Task: structure prediction
Amino acid sequence: MNEPVPSPDLQGVRPSLVQLTHVIYGLHAVAVVIGVTSSATVAGGFVFGLPSLVAVFLNYLKRGDVAGSWLESHFVWQIRTFWFTLLWLAVYGLLIVTIIGIPIAWILIVLLGLWVGYRVLRGWLALTGVRPVA
Result:
């Protein structure tokens, strides 16, 4: 006999919203991979790449559907990651135009790329574990 595979308790959240959140993390991960494998930086690929732009658009579009659930933390996490990355890219841009700031800018862009990768991975792992990200 075939035993049914137990599904995780989604704590009252529609499975389609969990799948959508996986898709959004996947889009962000694609943007990170594009940044690593192309001439763009990870942070630049993340903020200006089409996959992440679509992901953030979906975050804002479906934000109301996840309000009050454990998925809300993932949407907030993803949106904040996007906007803080954009903010630090602006700081990078200001530093890179000065002779004295160039070494600091290069260190910043590497650290920012690592931070973005960490945020995507940590959030996705929390989602896989059916728990909020904090």
